[in-house]
Amino acid sequence: MLPFASCLPGSLLLWALLLLLLGAASPQDSEEPDSYTECTDGYEWDPDSQHCRDVNECLTIPEACKGEMKCINHYGGYLCLPRSAAVINDLHGEGPPPPVPPAEYPNPCLPGYEPDEQERCVDVDECAQALHDCRPSQECHNLPGSYQCTCPDGYRKIGPECVDIDECRYRYCQHRCVNLPGSFRCQCEPGFQLGPNNRSCVDVNECDMGAPCEQRCFNSYGTFLCRCHQGYELHRDGFSCNDIDECSYSSYLCQYRCVNEPGRFSCHCPQGYQLLATRLCQDIDECESGAHQCSEAQTCVNFHGGYRCVDTNRCVEPYVQVSDNRCLCPASNPLCREQPSSIVHRYMSITSERSVPADVFQIQATSVYPGAYNAFQIRAGNSQGDFYIRQINNVSAMLVLARPVTGPREYVLDLEMVTMNSLMSYRASSVLRLTVFVGAYTF
Ligand SMILES: *[C@@H]1O[C@H](CO)[C@@H](O)[C@H](O)[C@H]1NC(C)=O
Ligand SMILES: *[C@@H]1O[C@H](CO)[C@@H](O)[C@H](O)[C@H]1NC(C)=O
């Protein structure tokens, strides 16, 4: 596009075009080898410079332009323009010709427009035709008759270039901001996620999103916590739950045996016992509960951990039974002269490992004669001296366990009471046959 073309009236323009066509010469012509001395129309050979030189037709052709027109020399030709036309470019350039694009036609349209095939002026898309001078960092926008270089979104013009705006400097994000070419992105700390506005961070309920808690999950601000059911403890990994072995913590949890179970424990008792208040073991009184196998002719005797069926009639000749527990040796029977006059059967039960000395059984004279004196002794069944008698007064005495004994074990002690009356020179003996069951346990 020639800067002055728009100043030409239509008819003149055509003429000028013709002239240009006739005189058109490519600047390459002047680059021909030295030996080539013929020049195209409008140029002449200059032997000094060894180049084809433009002929200034305005000087060489008399009356090159007629009337009110002025002559403007041009490479390879000349133009006739109205005298009023402003000539911006100095077309009389001396020296080597500038690299003018070949086959330039004067454009009859306004700047930024060009004629189409029907010679209508249409907008030139400078952006599409790379006729713009936008920087690579800029975007070219075609406009009617011109174009615009703008910065893409997220860029700002600094000097000639578009520079990325660091949006992160403006605190757009609640947690973290990542600047990107032309934009930015907000990020959230772990445990949070971007809110609907993509800037604020909202707590993530990890419990609803499959947090790996084995048992219980509690969401909290920014994180979550795993917890375990009672009887479990959180593993070091923070997620899984380990059964607590309650039994290993204390030997006092259960009186007899502690059995650990997932999440809990239970106490067990040996046979013959029942669980009392979750940890204690209580002897089952089979005689009372009816859970015994004793016959009609037997008496059920309960002891710690079991029971015993004893014959109700335990009297052995020459003794005769006078009541359930009592056997009497009739004085009329000569065999009874050296024997205790009566034998009374009694049963008792003690636990193992009792602290000693321990009073275990009190013997009491049933009939008291005035002036009588009663003496007590262990007559049989105490060969190891595990028991002794402590006389309380002349009608009663205490059987004392002298040594700790461990069951299951059974003693049959004959406790003799000798009654003496010095005034009447009377001496009588009776025996309490005490069976002592020692249970296997301390309870
Ligand atoms: C947030 O970002 C998403 C994905 O990038 C987008 O689809 C959505 O329109 C954005 N929302 C807002 C409010 O900018
Ligand atoms: C106990 O024996 C004494 C004699 O040693 C006697 O004086 C006393 O009365 C007796 N007491 C009883 C309660 O029998």
UniProtKB/TrEMBL annotation:
InterPro entries: cEGF, EGF, EGF-like_Ca-bd_dom, EGF-like_CS, EGF-type_Asp/Asn_hydroxyl_site, EGF_Ca-bd_CS, Fibulin_C, Growth_fac_rcpt_cys_sf. Keywords: Calcium, Disulfide bond, EGF-like domain, Extracellular matrix, Glycoprotein, Repeat, Secreted, Signal. Pfam families: cEGF, EGF_CA, Fibulin_C, hEGF. GO terms for cellular component: basement membrane; elastic fiber; microfibril. Residues 1-27 form the signal peptide. Residues 123-163, 164-202, 243-282 form the EGF-like domain. Its main location: secreted. Plays a crucial role in elastic fiber formation in tissue, and in the formation of ultrastructural connections between elastic laminae and smooth muscle cells in the aorta, therefore participates in terminal differentiation and maturation of smooth muscle cell (SMC) and in the mechanical properties and wall integrity maintenance of the aorta. In addition, is involved in the control of collagen fibril assembly in tissue throught proteolytic activation of LOX leading to cross- linking of collagen and elastin. Belongs to the fibulin family. This is EGF-containing fibulin-like extracellular matrix protein 2. It comes from Canis lupus dingo. The gene is EFEMP2.
